[in-house]
Each structure stands twice: as C-alpha cells, then as structure tokens.
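dumping this here before i forget
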Amino acid sequence: MHWAPRPAPKDGGRDGGNANQFTISPEFGNLVRESIQNSVDARRVGTDEPVRVRFRLLVLRSAAKDAYLEAMRWEQMRPHVEACVDQAGDQQVAGRLREALDVVAGDDLRILQISDYGTHGLVGPERGQGNFAALTRDNLYSEKQNASAGGSYGLGKAMQYAASALGCVLFSSVLAEPEPATGRTFGRFFARAELVYHTLVDGSAYWGPMWLGLEPEEEMPESYWAQPDGDPLLGGLHMERAAEDSGTTIAVVGLKDLDRDAESDRDPEAIAEHIVAEVERHFWPGIEAGDLEVDVEVVETSTIGDLPAPRCAWRVDPSAGIHAGPLVRALRAHRSGEAAEELVAGGDVVAGRASLTVPRRTHGVDRHPEFEHQAVVLVRRATAQEEKASADSLRRAALTRGAQMVVKTLDAARSAPGAQAFQAVVLAGLAAGTGDGEEDRWAEEFLRAAEPPSHDDWTYTAKLRYEYSRGAKSRLAEFEKAIRLEIRRLLAVEPERTDDGPRDLAKRFHFTQPKQRRQGPTVLVGDAFVDEHDAWHIEGRIRLHSATGGVRGLPEVAFASESGGNGRVVWNEMAVVSGDAEVLDDAGVLAIGPGVREVAFRGVTDPETHPAPARQSTIRVKFRTMQEQD
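structure:
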C-alpha cells in the first residue's frame, strides 16, 4: 500500500488544484445534498428497500488518532503536503493545506464517514467507464443515466474534498456485481487526495492529485481488496462493512467546520445537529416516500480497537421537524385525497396546478415536441403554533421533482401580501404524477437539465441552450410566475380595499357572505398503499354530513391527472368494514342505510384500469352519489 502522486507533465505545466472544489459553496447543506443525492442515484436495481445513509462524525484522540493516521499512511503523504504548503505563495488550494498540518498536530482528528446501504457500490473496472473510476479517478464524469437522478455534472464529489482539511477522501465498498478483472465484490478500498503542483527535495515534480492503493506493475496504484474475516487496514480505518450489504463508505479526513462563524470550531454534537437539520430541509420528500432512511451519530474514542457506542444518535424524522413537518403533512393530505376545497382552519391543505411549457427538444437521445406539463401546487395554512415556532419557514414554497429532494425554496411572500401564514409544496416532473408517464419524464429531464452544478435552482444552463429550442429561459420564468399566481389563487387573497374602513381593520374584518361549505358525502382515507401488482389498497370512511333516508353510491378513485369522468378506475375488491351498508354489485356500489352518518370500507383497484403506474402517481377518492333511497 502506498500513496502515489501523479507525475508532472513533460511540458512543464503546473496545476494549482482542482477547480471543481470552487463550483459549489463549501457548506454543510451542500455537503449533505451532494452526498445523499449520490447515494440515492446509486440505488441498487431491482429492490424495493429504501436507501439507507449514515453520517458518523468520528472524533479520535490520543492513541486512536495516531493509529488512524498510521493506517492511512500519513507519513507517506506528509512530505507532499508540506511541499505544497512551502511552495504555496498565494494559491487558493495550497494555502488551505496549511490547515492539514494544524489538524494533524492538534488534539483530535475528526472524520466524517458517510455510509450508504442498498446501493450498487463502486462497481466497474479500475479505469475507463464505471462508477469506481468516475468517483475516484475522473473529473466531470457522471455515470447516472436515469431521468430522475439528482446529479448530472459529476461535480458533487468535489464537495467532500473541499470539506477535508487534508483534501483527502477514503473509499470502502461492497459491490453489487463483480469487478471485471478480479471477479471480486467484497472490500474494495481506494483513496484520493487533492493536492497541487509541487517538487520534493530530490527534485521530483508532481502534478497534484495522489492516490492510495496497491502498487501494481505500473506506476499508479489500484484497488486494495480486503480480507473477508477481519481486515487490518479497514479495521484500523473503522471502514469495515458486511459482505451481504452492498454500498460504499466514504471518509472525509480532517473534517472542517464548514459553517463556523466563530474563532473556534463547534463541538461535534452541534455539527451533527446541523447535519440532521440539513437532511430534513432537503430530503424530507424521499424520507416521507419511504425511499430513504438517514441516521446521524457522533462517536468519540481515545483507545485503539473497536469503536464504542455512539455518544449521541438521531434517526432523521422530518414529520416531527419544525420546518419540514408541515410540508410532510401537506403532502400526506394530498396523497390521501384529504385536501380541502378552501383554507379555513390551520392545517387545511388545498391543491392546484401550475403550468410549465416544456420546449421542443432538438438534440439528445429523447427528442420531443413542445407540450404543457401540469405541476401540482399544494398550499397549507399554518397553525398559530407554527407561526410562533417557525417564522422563517413560512410563506415559502419547496420545489421538488422526481429526485425526491427539495431543489429550491421559493420565497412566496410577495405572491400573496397580507395573506394568512402558509407553507407550500410544488411537485413537478415525475413527482407530479399527472398520469402521462412519458410527458412527466420529459418534464423531469428538462428540469434536471435546468439545474446548475449545485442542483439548487431551475435556471438557464448551457445544456438547455444546446438541447432545447429557443425560449427555454422564458419558459422557466413563466413557470415560476405560474406558481406564484396559483399560490395567490389558492389563498384566495382579495385586493386591498379603501372603502370599508382603515386598511388595518379591513385585513381583520371581511364584510362578505361566508362561502357555503358542501354538505355531500366525503371520503376520509385512513390507509393506502400500492402492492407488488401495482394495485392500490385503500381503507377509508364515507362520512355523511346529515342524516338521510339512505344513500346509494360508488367510491371512485381518480388519478391526479384526471378531470371529469374519463378513465374510471375499476375495483377488483370492495368490502364494508363497519357501518350499516352493503356492497350491491361487482362494480363496488354501496347501499348505505337510513340515518347512517359513517361507513368504513376497504377496496383494491384493478391495475389494468389505471391511467398511469400507481407508484408514480397520486390519487383522490370521492363518493359519487347515484340515487337517494326512500
């Protein structure tokens, strides 16, 4: 095992560092976004299990710190780092490496380990096309092919090097498929450090990056493969993994406090809590969908050997969070068909649509004509408690697509001045589930192409300019305007009046007739899920708002894209769970007895009648009255 730097080119050119580290702002929010995004994009094919990600902040002191540095061959790396610092001048990257020497000489060494499970691991050959080479050797290469992938530039990995005082990242992986040359899957280890051009005392010159691995016949190292029954290298680096669970552990050595605003670094627990908050803020859609689980923990030790139990640990639960909790509840109301018709009380949710004109795609593999995509806009009226506890999360809209993370948070305060406090969610692309899978996918690809390297906005990019017809920039501006207008419409904000008293009082007293609320039967969905055959299983209650002489009707499922009565979904099964009612026929028509106020039912849909795949869609359930009985 040895560190091998890249020799300087014969033409005498020098490299002042990897510029990729400067494309994304070095903040914990971006580190979390890029890391989890890469893990979700690497989800193992053919599994319904969620991707699991663990952030472990490892704090090593005394003997534990010395043993770790020895295991990562620091003494081989040290002369190169010292040479970079000595020859730094005013170079950006080389100047930062001074911190590496301070970290190694300090009291503790902080390593952020980011481990994912249920992913395909660092598959592929040592060089060329493959996830391993794209992550550990290449620049600006991305192996992500699916339309809903979060990343597309191959720049996210640069955040991890920027977060390391040593510019050093270690990789340990269990592969979902054998490596082509060796046929092995267990314990692939490799490491990379981002240095700059430097010369050693013997006059040898080096370009910048260096790698840690096994020394082959050629000059540059290759992957080290761990022993199956306890490996001394991975054990010394605390990067051992179970052979049956594919995925990758990444270690950011010498973690910087990226968001510190003081002379001294924050304590490990404060950094971990910051990571928890960033996970909630950016990835609540994926966690709520059941496709992602995230744990954060702090482990501290001064002794050599197995790690002790975490000093503190969290399972990230956005539904309980101050910022993400209301957004989760808004999404749940929409998916269960419990959205209201108007915002009356705190916690009410209403749904609408915002149109995105996707331009004609003129280049690329999947070309298409211009079309209109309907994104879902959800607006939730904040409760009084939320107004007091989370004022900074109000009057904002979380913009999402099929990657199941929040791409952008739109300040929507200007959309409805004077309105009640609210939260909003926008579901676009594959997240919208409009029923037209092909157009949803095209919209997803358009929005993905509109994201900059940090994937935190929808803006005009070079890819849009090249692959789409003229007008893409205007279409994005129109989409944002449509979102703001729909939020305003759903909030039902009336214009300012000057003829009904002082403006301050006018905001508090509206001298208008209240709207009459609909008194027909409503459906409250208690539980709903999609089985392996793509059928919806729905348990719900039909609530009648007034006693009647009896009602006959049909619970109807409508996919979110439907309007009117087209494309009715058929029931395969329908049963009454409780209440005075019976199923009249195979269609699922229910006869509800006189005076009944509530009936519980259970139904299973026929997937052959679905207008779109169930897992990519949202549904509404309504009760269509056919005829009142005497």
